[in-house]
Write a structure and sequence with these properties.
Two copies of one chain form a homodimer. By secondary structure, chain A is an alpha+beta fold. Chain A has helices at residues 3-9, 48-63, 82-90, 96-99, 136-153, 185-189, 193-198, 234-280, 286-301, 310-319, 322-329, 335-357; strands at residues 26-35, 72-76, 106-110, 115-119, 125-132, 158-159, 163-164, 176-183, 205-208, 221-226. Chain A has an eight-stranded antiparallel sheet with strand order 2-3-4-5-1-8-10-9, covered by helices on one side. A two-stranded antiparallel ribbon of chain A has the order 6-7. Chains A, B: ATP binds at residues 28-32, 92, 126, 177-181, 208-213.
Chain lengths: 365, 365
């Protein structure tokens, strides 16, 4: 398979691995650095020629990289079909904004999908490094290494007083957004999320849904990230977010234990009904599917559901999304057709698990 | 097993057989005759001595019956434990009113449970004959045969002008209530039941839920019976009810076809989700269980669900009821305990079907 096809089709994503520290609650950690080159105007203002030249310059630096431990692939946005761009968005490899660009814009992705560099999005460069579980240190180390490497070849727009200059002033300073994706079903069920979200601004943090800015928390997934990029060092931001994530992990853990201690039958009923819906429904919206998968994940974490590998759940989480679903079926589908196909696909995946569990290896998970 | 124990435990009831005319829509047909003896005061007014004597007289006539093709068992109400009385009510062998009697009252039941005679309920005698499917002719023939037989030994209170005299004037005349129990999920889903129910009084008919007077239609089961007993002959009542039942069967059949033609996926989703709930829920109220079973029955009738025998569904319908459930577990349970036990029992029964389907005969349906 061509490497590009892997990005568009593979569901076995490294950062969804899960068997890492706090992997049952923190799905992934992400570091994003916004950078702009000194000798170019910002994307909002520059010409098509500048955009093209910049895209070529940066991607060549990355593709030729020999000192980095990674191999990269360049994907041009304008020539990528819309369905495949949707898949890249759903895999968090590019932003929805980049997907909509109609002139020289691209993404450079490492083979294991842990690094992606968007070129000519809101800023010239958006370096993204993602790691499974709670691992700000490693994600930052990877981003920082790549950042230093790039800076050797392409001088950045940097101001002694303000730090890295960006298109949007909210990113100026460190240009860094550090985020953790958390699965918080127990805090959601026990109505504690509102209180947690309300304390975020005081901590300079912000909570979003799984698909970034402006989207609601579907399936009890919350993305927590720093709001402030100016006046705080990278180290301070990482320390604060680490501390906050650990506190939330602890509260979620306590809530799960309390639910299990005081309402085990109700929890057992809830998570198994969701599993039943995934096994039996013939029509499933992406929201309902996400919520059922969230309950099943909780059921596995609580020991109430057995024999469903995390890998399978992660695959399900990806394939319920519209882009992936249509990429799978190989054609565009209307929303109601998607709901039927989504239900069919989930039934197939879960039945394959059941068959495999019974020792029949002819089925592919 | 003692014959009485069979009545309290058996779930394989002949009148739930189902493989009869219109058996997919009409569950059963029932004829009830109210009779009083000439030489006794009505139950509302008579003494304990009279009640006792009457109970003995009638039950002896039935137990000694040699000309009838049936063998009967006498069950005294006052000495029957409450749980077992609940089961008899749930099997429609006695009325809730009889179950609450604290003096000489009894029921005489035929071995196949198709005939039951309540003694000293509201009237001295309530003869009930039940048949599977739509079969007013046979049910009436059986009731009439037993009625004529009894009249030879115990003279009835009969008035040339009014007909059979009863405790409640609404039964005076023929003393007959003919009823059919119908499963009408398609008419319910398409909001046609209200209109059907509203036309009943003009036809001298009435619609009730599955558990008789004053109960709501649970699980889309409706009991349709004649309201009028005076001024109409038995034959007229039977002809009118037969005609009405056939019309409703036709409308239900048309609605099912329309649902399948125009909304097959939605129906498939609905009936399978219900099957999923029965397979996976850990807490099930009797109402939810009845509604899920109704959907599964519809799914079987429409060919959307396979491999669940009607016999198993009928068993499920019986065991979800509080009395049966507690009789099964052998002890009284609080309502929330019943909901958990109900879910467990249904999962077991349905899993046994699945095992058996796979050729493993060690499981008992």
């Amino acid at each position: 398979m061509d490497k590009k096809d892997t990005f568009f089709n593979a569901t076995d994503v490294r950062w969804m691995a899960g068997d890492v520290e706090h992997g049952d609650i923190v799905m992934s950690t992400r570091i994003r650095l916004a950078r702009n080159l000194k000798d170019y105007r910002f994307p909002r203002a520059f010409s098509e020629d500048e955009a093209f030249k910049l895209d070529q310059t940066i991607s060549n630096v990355l593709l030729d990289a020999e000192t980095l431990d990674q191999h990269f692939t360049h994907i041009d946005i304008a020539t990528t079909p819309i369905l495949q761009k949707k898949v890249l968005v759903e895999k968090h490899l590019i932003s929805p904004q980049l997907a909509h660009k109609d002139r020289s814009a691209s993404v450079v992705i490492s083979d294991d999908e842990s690094v992606s560099v968007m070129i000519n999005e809101e800023d010239h460069l958006r370096i993204q490094c993602i790691e499974p579980g709670l691992d700000l240190e490693k994600a930052y180390f990877n981003a920082d290494t790549l950042d230093r490497y790039l800076e050797e070849y392409v001088p950045y727009a940097f101001d002694e007083e303000f730090g890295y200059l960006t298109s949007c002033p909210t990113n100026t300073g460190t240009g860094m957004r550090a985020s953790v994706m958390m699965h918080l079903p127990a805090l959601t069920m026990t109505d504690q999320m509102e209180q947690i979200i309300s304390m975020m601004p005081r901590l300079g943090m912000v909570v979003r849904g799984i698909y970034g800015e402006g989207t609601e928390a579907v399936g009890n997934y919350y993305q927590i990230s720093n709001q402030v990029t100016l006046g705080k060092s990278e180290e301070e931001i990482l320390t604060d977010l680490q501390s906050l994530a650990e506190q939330i992990v602890q509260r979620e853990t306590e809530s799960r234990k309390a639910l299990l201690d005081h309402a085990e039958t109700i929890m057992n009923d809830r998570v198994n009904r969701s599993l039943g819906t995934l096994h039996y429904a013939r029509i499933l919206t992406s929201d309902e599917a996400a919520n059922c998968l969230s309950n099943v994940r909780l059921g596995i974490d609580l020991g109430l559901i057995e024999n469903i590998p995390t890998k399978v759940l992660n695959k399900c989480m990806l394939v319920i999304q519209p882009g992936f679903l249509q990429q799978y079926v190989g054609t565009t589908l209307k929303p109601n057709e998607r709901d039927v196909y989504r239900a069919t696909l989930l039934r197939e995946i879960l039945n394959n698990v059941r068959q495999r569990e019974k020792g029949d290896d002819s089925y592919d998970v």
